[in-house]
Amino acid sequence: MSQRTRARVYWVGGASAAAVILSAGLANAQAKPPTGNMVEEVVVTAQHKQEAAQTVPIAISAFSQKTLDAAKIEGGPDLLKAIPNVSFTKTNFSGVNLTIRGIGTQAVSVSTDPGVSINFNGTAFIRNRFFEQEFFDLERVEVLRGPQGTLYGRNATAGAVNIISARPTDLFEGEIKGEVGDYASRRLSGFVNIPLIGDKLDLRLAGASTNRDGFANNTTTGNKIDGRDLYSTRVSLGFKPAESVRANLVWEHFSENDNRARSTKQLCTRDPGIPSLGGMTLSPQTSAFFSQGCLNASLYSDAAYGTPNGLSIPFVLASVTKTAVLGLNPDGFSGSVDLLKAVDPYGGAMQSRDLRQVSSMFDPKYRAKADTLELNVDFDLSPTLTLTSQTAYNRDHYFSSQDYNRFNTQPGVFNDSTGLDNLVVAGTPAPNLTPGGVYCDPQLGCSSTIAGLDQSKAKSRQFSQELRLQSAFDGPLNFSLGANYTNYRTIEDYYVFFNIISAIAQSSGYGNNSLDPTKCGKNFDGSTPTITPGGTTGCIYIDPNPLDQVNGLGHNYFRSQNVYKVSSSAAFGELYYNITPDLKLTGGLRYTRDRKTFTPVPTQVLLSSGNGGTVDGGYPVGEDIKQHWGVITGRLGLDWSPKLSFTDQTLLYAFYNRGYKGGGANPPAIGYSDEPLAPGLPPLVQLTSYPDTFKPEYVNAFEVGTKNTLLGGALTLNTSAFYYDYKGYQVSQIQDRTAINENFDSKVWGLEFESNWRPTQALRLTLNLGYQDSKLADGSKSIDVENRTQGNPDFTVMKANPFLPSNCVVSKAYVTSLIAANVATNQPDYAYLGGVCPGSIASLFLVPAPTEADLPNGGRGFYADLSGHGLPNQPKWTQSLSAEYSLPLSDGWVGAIRGDVYHQSQSWARVYEDAIDKLHGWYNVNLRLTVAKPDSGLEFELYAKNLLDDSPITGAFINSDDTALTTNVFTLDPRVIGASVRKRF
């Protein structure tokens, strides 16, 4: 079935269902349904008190464990398929982006706060396993749309998710469920509830485990990757020493150890560079100076499954243009031998169009552990006053590594170093760095190809305490007052290893600049290295340890260490005043005090005290960046419950909400020395200065809505409309080998429709529709790393030398004059081109010298006008439709069939709305068949998730200039067909 045909089928089906629901609901509102036809009513605690979801003046979607099972919502990523104006995608660096009404987490920094507050039993956790962990033994999941600036406070500008675990009861009961499916998947889950001491003490034990083979194939290793081996356990203890005291102690443990892939595909439309300039034909090396590596082009074309122009990668370019050399030819005539052969190491190879097929030298590794301990206690101070204490502690660790690229270079790209003469000490042999064209990297091993791997690891701790006082007076006035304290600390390390970088660090022309060749070079081959991590010999310190034992001091790899802590305290309160029995006024305020401390640790790849750095090895720590904010947020609104003749229950509400999310610190830049190279000269390298910090986000939100129950409880119709004035939305991109976060103002608006209908006891229908849009403020602008020239034909992108991490933009007229001047003096046509980009001291010696007009914005390029652009990952339309039909069978058995269809329209991966940013809309279809015998607690299930086996691109992340601007893309799980059996007792 074609995409267009699918769209027609789904749209016709959705429109027909909407028409049926609306016409039946309004035309037959007076009709009384048969007994037992009521839609399931979910009790929620969105306002920190138990209320029916239909009576809460908030746009909220709530799901019981039964509903989650029926819809095959097995974890956080599945929630988008049942809620309007919600989207979800994996992102880079082990992150995720849950977006509600266009607002999510687009910034990259350890100090970035989430836009959606993820809560477990009412406590918000900054680091959580919302993406990895699967749902099990829950009472319900609540998703609140819109800013929750009073009761939830910080980090809830988009909304909040509250996951409520099942509590112990005074009944002995249990359940066990076994499941098998495609990809050798096995899942086991269950619980047992044990009353211990009458109605005073109850114990509940629950757990779930999942094992399956990988969804993707690595053609290089021959292994399946992106598999799962994880489990969760939970122990809950309910204690009721008196009628006025109720306590619940929960310990939850999560563990994963498998080959989960952060991204299973990396796309690139190859940028060949410029073949000629000013009438001159350029050599392959020179042409590579004018290539980004990958073009700004659609991710859906055949060309997108290419590989980069490898010669354009600065580390490669330096190794074919006499910067990094192995030695001298002994004949005395052929000159020096470059580290790499002067060919594109990727050879223009094309990849498979299968998003689940990669060619990587290294299989992914993923390990995560998390422990959460919560104690929630309710004290009834009187029949009308309840004091609640919520105490929580969380400890989290994770480790992830995978091949940096999902494609390989051609074999034999290293030159042979056997028999070469020393470049710096005449009459001595050169270090035999690549014997036979094979280089042995201390971390990545021996290879004749360029190998790369990135590694992310972190550990964090969080403590939270909240106290609330809630009233339940009979009069018109009630309140909820509280105070909250959160302390969170984390250390995150991100490494990138490339064997070409280690080889450059040891090469005679780059890392080994000392006249004593024993000081630099192969200090990991058994000889005693004389380079110390804090030394100043002028040589690059190379970490001699294997990958799993790196000391973190080497300058032969990229390491970004991020040390961060935040303490946040808040006081809040809401007043509820019934003006009349049907009309209620709600007013709330919250004062939040955030204190953040970020310790910058500048990156040091290929730096030493002799080439622009401060030390040969190690990572000097910068001065702490301290930020603090004191912010007032809140909400004000009315809700009205009129008595209408055509509904059983109606709620109308109108609210103003103000939300806040803290700013943060940009990850540190490169640790170049600010000391002059010599008296009268500037430092060896000077980068463009970026702000150390980025600003907070603020939102003023206006919302109106209505919730209606009709047909004696058989039909619910809910609608809402919203308008946001958003200030300072945080967006990130990789510049100068770090994440630079910028702030943008935007307007956001939209509509939502939710309906549940049970026309007969056997039939259930659900329809959700969402529309949303946004526009960045006039005058919004930013440098787009994918399109630095902004289409100006008189300028070109230039590659820098390895000192400088980003591309620059230079006028073609200037570059033409420089090449012509060099060729006229018998220099190769690429001579000095590495010094054109501003920042390197080599630029001071360019003849002719560039003017400011030749280097727009200091060489960074032209600003992209973002006025009127939409927010990333915000599809204008989302629709979901489900239908379930059950019928009685013989001997007490009941059969049921359910289908779920979800669609989201196209969206953009970034604010620039380039060709590379466009994400196509996509569909998802699930099917479920069950046969159950309720009296015996037995159920058999057959299901198909992602029935049509669609593989949409749900998100994209563009990598750095110096790794060719490749794009990591993210997709859904493939089709999985499985079966399960459940037994309750």
From TrEMBL:
The keyword Cell membrane does not apply. Belongs to the TonB-dependent receptor family. It holds the Pfam family Plug. The keyword Secreted does not apply. Residues 385-947 form the TonB-dependent receptor-like beta-barrel domain. GO terms for cellular component: cell outer membrane. Keywords: Cell outer membrane, Ion transport, Iron, Iron transport, Membrane, Receptor, Signal, TonB box, Transmembrane, Transmembrane beta strand, Transport. It comes from Caulobacter sp. (strain K31). Residues 1-29 form the signal peptide. InterPro entries: Beta-barrel_TonB, Beta-barrel_TonB_sf, Plug_dom, TonB-dep_rcpt-like. SUPFAM superfamilies: Porins (SSF56935). GO terms for biological process: iron ion transport. Transmembrane segments: none annotated. It is a multi-pass membrane protein. This is TonB-dependent receptor. It comes from the Bacteria. It is found in: Cell outer membrane. Residues 54-160 form the TonB-dependent receptor plug domain.
